[in-house]
Every structure is written in C-alpha cells, then in structure tokens.
UniProtKB/TrEMBL annotation:
<protein>
    <recommendedName>
        <fullName>Right handed beta helix domain-containing protein</fullName>
    </recommendedName>
</protein>
<dbReference type="InterPro" id="IPR012334">
    <property type="entry name" value="Pectin_lyas_fold"/>
</dbReference>
<dbReference type="InterPro" id="IPR011050">
    <property type="entry name" value="Pectin_lyase_fold/virulence"/>
</dbReference>
<dbReference type="InterPro" id="IPR006626">
    <property type="entry name" value="PbH1"/>
</dbReference>
Amino acid sequence: MTSSTQITVPIEPGQSYQWSVQVPENPAAVANFTSEEETPLIAAIVSPMEGDEVDGETVTLEFQPVPDYSGNYVVRLQPTGWDGTQANGFTHESTDYYLDIVTSSTQITVPIEPGQSYQWSVQVPDNPAVVANFTSEEQETTDGNDDIPLPPPPGSLAPVIISPRMNDSIDASTVTLKFWPLSDYDDEYLVRLDSEDWNGSQASGFNHDCSVHYLCIATTDTEITVQVERGISYRWWVHHPDRPGVEATFTVEPGEDIPLPDPDIPIILSPEDNIEINDANVTLEFAPVAGYNNNYLVRLEVENWDGVQAPGFNHDCNVHYLCISTDDTSLSVPVDLGQEYHWWVHKPDFDAAHSNFSTASIELEQIGDRYLLSALASYSGTTADTSAIIQQAIDVIPVGATLELPAGKYYLDQQVVIDKRITLTTVGKSIDDPVSDLETGDYAELITSRNFAQEDGLLFIQDIEAMHHLVLNGNRQNRQNTSAYNQVSNGNNRFGILVVMASDDSTIVGNHFINAIGGTGLEVKDFRSNVRVDDNIFAYNGVHNQSFLWADGLTVHDAYNSQFVGNLFIDNTDIDFIFGGAQNSLIENNTVIHTADTTGGAFASIMIHKWPTTSGNYSGTIIRNNSVDGGPNKTAGTGLYIASEGWYDETPFGVTLSNPTQAEIYNNTVINTVNGMYVAAHDFAIYDNTFTNSHGVSFPASCRTLTANAPIVVSPTSSNIDFHGEDIDPETLYQFSEQDWDDCVPNWPL
C-alpha cells in the first residue's frame, strides 16, 4: 500500500506480467504487459573473416566492438590438430586453447604456423560468441634461413629462440645459441646450457654466475658461441631475470672433433676454407680465445684489389680491403661477386687463424644489346637475398644495354644502385606496352625484405636511361617491428622510401610502386630535367592514420621540361602526387582514387607545393585533365592543393621574369573530397575545373575543425590568380569562398 503514483520494480526479460491498482474497498484497474527479450551483446568480426587465407607468420585478429559496451572480451584461437603449446607472450585464461585471453583490445596479433586451419571467436562474457574459420598459406622454403621465427610481439613475457630450436641436430664442435630479445627490455638475459651426464666442468671463456650448469651467464648478447661435445644431447634456455623462459633441446652429431688450434689463436667459424658466398655481404665470425677480453686484428684481402677499403669501418691500416682492431666476433662486410678472398684474425703479437673463400659469379644471356639475367629465376618464390646478383648484373653490362629480369618475386636485403645509362625491365616487355594488372604475374617484382634497413630506397637511381614494367614492393604489411619500420615510425621516413631517382633525361614507364612503409613510392630528387614519368601505378603506400607511417605515391622535388602523364594513384596516404616545383612541364591525365578504407586516406591528392629546399616555380607548366575521386567515405582531404601554407611558410608561384608563361590549371575534375581546391599561391591561371560533392562538410585538420564553404577555397594570401572571371561571374561565383587555413593540414587523422 502506497501513496506514490510511480513505483519502480525489477523485472525479468521475456516475461508476461499483470498489474493492478485500486483504492481500498473499490474496484481495481488492471493491465497486462510483457518485457522485451534482452538483446545479446555480440561483437562483429573484421578480419580474418570466414574462409579467409592469411599470408605471413602472424595473424591480427580484429573485431568491431559492441556499441556502448566498454568491458573486456573473451578471444580464443585454435588450430586444427593443436599440440597443446599455447601462443607465446600472452596471459591465458585456460590451457584449453592455443589462445585464450580476456582483453579490451580490438586487435590482437598472434603467431601462426603456415599451412594450418584455424578457428577464432570473440564474445562478451556470458553472451554468444561470433566465430570465423581461416587458413594460413603454405610457406615455400629452400633453405634453413626461411624458417627463422619472428621477434616476440610487444608485451611478450619471454624472448624467442632462433637456433638451435627444439630437436635440432648440430654437426660441429661449437654451437651458437641465438634468440630474439624482448622489444621492451635491453638489459641482461640469463642464458643456461646443460648436457646429459654433465661432469661439472663449465664452458671455458665465460664468466659464469652460477656453478650448477655447463653454461650459466648473464649477458646482453643475443648470440653466444659455446664449445660442445660430439654425440651428446643438450638443453638450453633463456629468460628475463624476473619472467618465464623459453627452452629447446638439441643433439650434437657423432664424429671427430676438429682439432682445436693453439689456445691463443681464435677459431674461425665462418666462412671456412673453400666456401662460396652468394651474397652482397659476408659475415666474418670467429670464436674468441678463452680468458682474452681485448681487441683482435681482423684482415680481409681480395684478389686484384683496387685499393678502395670496405666502407663503414675505421681502418687502422691502408694495405688491406679490411684492416681493423675490434672486440666484435661477428662482422658483416660488403663483398663483390665473382672474387677470391682471404681473411685472418689474431691477437696482437700472436699467430692468426686463416681462411679463403670465394663469391659466386653470375652468367648473363646476351641477345643483341639485351642481357637476360636468367639465373635470377631460380630465386623466385624464395626469400633469399637477390640484391648482389642484380647489382652485379647492373655493374657488368655496358652503357646503352637493357637488363631484363625474368618474371617472378625476388627479395632484396640490400639497396641496389643504378649509376649508368641502361634500361631495366622485365623479360619480353617493350617500353610501349600498357601497364599490366599485378594478377597477371608477368612482372619481375622486387620486394623489400624484413632485413632491409637502408635510407633512400630499395633502388637508388643515380643515372638511368629507362626503367619500365617492373613491380617495386615495399612489403609494408610484413615489415612491422623491423629496424626500418621503427626508424619510420619514429619520424625518419628516409628508411621507408621505395625508389629514389636522381637522374636527368630518364624515363619511368609502366611500373608498379606499392606498399612503401613510409616516405614515398618514388622520389624524383633535387632539380631534374627531361624526366618522363608516365603510365605507372602508385598504390597502397603508407598508412594514413598512424603517425609518420603515411607515404606519398610520387614525390617530385623540382622538374624542368618534364612530363607526368597517365599515372594511376590508389590509396596513397600522405599526398598522392606532390610537386615542389615544375617548369615548362606537363602534368596531365593522371587519376587519383581512394577507396572506403580510412587507413588509405590522404591529406591531399594532387599538391602544387613549395617546401624550403624546392623552388616553388611552376612557370610554363600545364596541369590539366587530371581526376580525383576521394571515395565513398571522402577519405581524401583536398583534391587540388595549390599552396604550401598548411605545412610551410612558403608560396608556390606560376610566373617569373625569365619565364613569363603563366602556369595553368584547367579541366581537372574532383569528386568526393572534403575540399575541392585550396589556393594560396601567386600568378596562376585556374579555370574550367569541375567539383562534385567536395565541400560543405566539417573535417578534422591539424589546427582545428574546418568546413569548406565552397568547392574552391581561396586564401587571403593568394595574389594574381586568374580565374578567367569565374570568381566574379554570378553563374560560377558560388564555387568560391575566401577562408584562411594557414598552418592547417587538412584531413588530419590523429
């Protein structure tokens, strides 16, 4: 009984109820009602989805969170025929799944095995799970290097063993214990090695921190070479001092031990006598003398040496190709193919250990002035480094020749330099052939490997006649947590650039520039004249919404008497197509497309720009018949950005006293961008451009939220812009708005 007219009562979902109210000793008013069924909280899988095939050694499980739910999710992953080993680096809720975690993260990267079937699920606790099945691609390998595991992902508790791994067999008198360190820890690891029936004698040459293992050390080294006995089984493990470890067992094959040299002479591990090296670098490795902690003298000689010493070293003499004093026991040194080498190492005033090795030569098939690098074909489909083979072929062919690479996929660990007037292409391609779809497989594709860590591109072109019908692939999807990736993500985009061209009178036609980590797909560097960049595809370079990982498609510093015609740009993530200056040049019939993928957005699509090291001079240049489509989600910012002031206190200009022919921008089309055109420049003619669905929406910029009040936004800093009367004609005046976007980078994603 109550005097209140509102009473709140808990009820169960999915039930029928009857309620009544009455004045005592009077009839009751009655009503029936039902409670709605409770809507389950179900997440949506983004990737991998049902039936997907995943390429790589990790998979990123990604799902769309439940609206208005901020709690944890249960995420599980299970391979077919699971052996009970759980994913490393996670705190699992149970031992029933390969991955079984509770997390608020909507993206979880997990190591996987090639050629396996997997099922994964995600659910809000006590709610139904959503499930997807996927497979991982088979991994083709030709040597042991292809099976090197990935480093531990961020947040892992334990390092990752590289070698020897579980049940490996070693045929040597020494073993090198190798592991990947943790990304968040750079101090000492505890490394232990035990043998079966150990006699209590510890490994010589080490400062052990305990006496209960054959090897018991604390070290920052991730490669430790230890003497072992033939025919014995061993177990080794490594761990952070306060975290769990990882372990592996291996056996040493029976056989005769190589006699140890004098105790004061180090042991050469590689390359040993009569080894042939098929690489652009050789690793000189030796086991140090026990109890000796000072420098060694390391020397390397090449037959018919030209007197130029190995780059990157502080040499202590000038009579050898390599002449250094060092305490490093593993040294990577660049070498030339087709040469004989001799190297030695010793303590000062002691005898040396010596070894001779050679580097492989290549054979080229010559047909007239064309040279076919047929030896490259055997590397297609492997991850072996092909940079030395390609570099030697470039070095040996004559000026004016064409080097043809067989169709296939080839990985490069080192930069290839082109410094002569040659043509580089795929076998059977003519410079006049149309650009092909990647799916045809009829291109030579040069792929940046995970080991690549150099500035200024996979290809550095100092001089070239032409490059056509190749695929240059930055492989960004598979290079996370590499040295180059970390450089780019910390602001040095020179490590992300795909190709740099610093050559005049050169033609770049019919190529694909794809998947750069950052920087740009192709950089036409410094002031270049008579350059032709036509009919190429620049696609999927960079990531728009991660700091410093964005990338241009094509970056041109300064061009003269050049043309950029018929190129296609897809989802480049800084600026699709950017100039710092272009005089007496033609920029025509280029197409920019953005998909619905927000990670493939851009600040601007075509930028007529000036930065501090470029001229900003566009006198005599025509920019016409180009098209921009920002996509269904308007992921491109400004379609045509004729300005610098969002980035720099600079102004591009279209006329000079020495070249009074005014730059013209006309007959270009822009659709589906947040801003059609922004103009903060001097002395351009801009007219007859078409804009659709390119203004009137608010969008984020680096300074504040902006809204283009008309398709063409003109900055108050502009002067002498000839709009051919469109800015005063009542029929076209609606296209113009004066707004000040100084210091505002459009479409800022962060």
